[in-house]
Amino acid sequence: MATYDFKNKVALITGAASGIGFAAAKQFAEGGARIVGVDRNGERLKNLLSALPRNGQPHVAIEKDLRLVAEAQAVVPEAMQFTGRLDIVVNAAGVCYFTKMNEITPEEYNEVFDVNVRALFFISVAAAETMDASRGGRIINVGSNAGRKGRAWSAHYAASKAAVKNITESLALSYGSKNISVNTVCPGPTKTPMWETNFKGLKAITGKDPEEFWHMWSRQTPLGRVGRPADVANVICFLASEKGGFINGQEINVCGGFMLTS
Ligand SMILES: NC(=O)c1ccc[n+]([C@@H]2O[C@H](COP(=O)([O-])OP(=O)(O)OC[C@H]3O[C@@H](n4cnc5c(N)ncnc54)[C@H](O)[C@@H]3O)[C@@H](O)[C@H]2O)c1
To answer: Which domain CATH number covers 108?
Structure first.
């Protein structure tokens, strides 16, 4: 159900084919936005477009592999060819691996930083440069509770999400004068397809099955459950809405209080 009015807005969302990005794309479209969905998974992007309500001008799917800087840099120019404007950018594309410190390869390390940090940086800067000060703009980055402190089994991921917080602040400082706000939302454990990969790593390290982790994290969360993609999308949409317009450069946890106990 639409909560905010996004009529006449164009929202570009990376990682839109799955999980949190998918949920955000749906909510923006339900509020009337035209969506530009960006992901490397073309099949799932097609599913997204068919799941969105039509809002006049057609939604757009852009298939890109954000590990490659040239593809990341092509996202905003390509989107502008279709839409001519951008009002909202959500950087939700991300990868996570649970790997012991001495088993992290340079390739895995680079992938985590290339997608989670470098692509986010270049897409955000390119978008901010195209946004018009008279209309303003909103950039919402998806960080993580994991960015708040070190992690034994996903050091590269935790570091990448700490970088997202820092880049968010730099963007907020740089583009506030153009009436662009930039914030980070930090989910705790949230049930999305990302965990299919994560649980392979966790099983190898701990021998535990997914259900054991979901149960443990639910109990560890003061509100008694893990997150749903829509919980995070709700906050992303609030930050992008008129009501969220004076929040800038902040990192907002969306985790039911999980970060207090983890
Ligand atoms: N699910 C959680 O528990 C959780 C917790 C904290 C933070 N996050 C963050 O939320 C964001 C969304 O994650 P999710 O849980 O919805 O995961 P997800 O796997 O469901 O969605 C991530 C999307 O990013 C896309 N993607 C990955 N690598 C890409 C690449 N090289 N090029 C283009 N697209 C690429 C995937 O195809 C996928 O559609 C990520 O940044 C993740 O780090 C998730």
So the answer is: 3.40.50.720
Question: Whole domain around residue 70: which residue ranges?
Answer: 10-191+228-256
Question: Is residue 165, in this structure, part of any structural domain at all?
Answer: yes
Alpha-carbon distances, residue 3 vs 6, 144, 178, 198 (angstroms): 9, 24, 26, 32
Dist. CA 132 → ligand 1 center (Å): 29
Check pocket membership of 93 for ligand 1, CB cut-off 6 A: yes
Give per-residue pLDDT as tens, 19-50: 999 999 999 999 999 999 999 999 999 999 99
pLDDT tens for each residue of 169-186:
999 999 999 999 999 999
112 CA from centroid of ligand 1 (Å): 11
In a domain, 213, yes or no: no
Q: Which residues are catalytic?
A: 144, 157, 161
186 assigned to some structural domain:
yes
